Amino acid sequence: MPDRRRFGVFGDAGSFSEAAAMLYAQDNNIDPSSFIYLSVMEDLLAAVGEGEIELGLFPVVNFRGGIVQTAFEAMGKYPFSLVGSLRLNVQHCLITRPGTALKDITKIATHPQALAQCSEYLKREFVHAEQISWNDTASAARDLAGGKLPADCAVIASEHAAKMYN
User: Fold this and answer.
1) 3-state DSSP call for residue 9?
2) What whole-number distance in Å separates Cα of residue 51 and Cα of residue 53?
């Protein structure tokens, strides 16, 4: 029988953290329906520290972007115990609304780590595009689809988020 512990995941559905949580859940017989999505890093670690969730998964470091500053700041404020770690191969997609041509993109929104990971590509292909830090890659895709970001904006997120949010 799958483990039904409340499992906090940083970010929205479709995030890379969700992909990592799915891997962890599969390896540890945890029911993914127990995932609770928390879009603020401090909220995730506070929920662990206060016993509102039993497990929390969040990014700490990545190969190209270095340490995830918000994670380290939150880890210094809330009690938790490390129970495991995993690696996830992250493959970013540039996502636009249907009908938006690459030449029309003037803004790119995503999590600061994704901006860092894609910095060389962005410098080469979108030198004049404004880079906008967003709370999470998946929420940027959701907000683009929902009209919170303008049509001339692209986002960087996973292929799963692109499909999930059309």
Assistant:
1) strand
2) 5
Environment class of 68 (CB within 10 Å of its CB; exposed 0-12, middle 13-18, buried 19+): buried
Q: What pTM was estimated for this model as a whole?
A: 0.82
Q: Can you spell out the DSSP letters for 41-85?
A: HHHHHHHHHTTS-SEEE---EETTTEE-HHHHHHHTTS-------
- CA gap 94, 116 in Å, rounded: 14
Handedness of CA 79, 71, 44, 81 (dihedral sign): negative
Could you give the CA distance from residue 161 to residue 136 in angstroms, rounded to a whole number? Answer: 11
Alpha-carbon distance values, 73 to 11, 48, 79, 100 (Å): 17, 15, 12, 37
Helices (H) and strands (E) counted in the chain, each on its own, are 7, 9
- 7-60 residue pLDDT tens: 999 888 898 899 999 999 998 888 888 899 998 888 998 998 888 998 998 888
The span from the CA of 15 to the CA of 44, in Å, is 15
- At 64, phi and psi to the nearest 5? -95, -35
Beta bridge partners of 26: none
